[in-house]
Write a structure and sequence with these properties.
Elements: H1 2-31, H2 36-41, H3 45-69
Helix pairs in contact: 1-3
Length: 71
């Protein structure tokens, strides 16, 4: 039962972090005065690097949640 709880904890943590990635993209898109989708389509590297930093930070926290959840 403890193994199932650990897997459930890791799945919930992974789902929450994916939700946070979507929320951070949405908030960043709302707070800036330009459209992220249009800028990414036009090849704006600065916007893509900012989003990359956001997603890497949330991905690191996801790894910690899953790693500690399965430990």
């Amino acid at each position: 039962t403890i193994m199932l709880l650990n897997i459930l904890y890791a799945l919930i943590g992974g789902g929450m972090s994916l939700g946070l990635m979507g929320l951070s993209f949405w908030l960043f898109n709302k707070k800036t005065d330009f459209s992220l989708n249009n800028e990414l389509r036009n090849g704006n590297i600065a916007v893509s690097l900012v989003l990359l930093g956001i997603f890497i930070g949330i991905g690191l926290s996801t790894g910690l949640v899953i790693g500690l959840g399965l430990n």
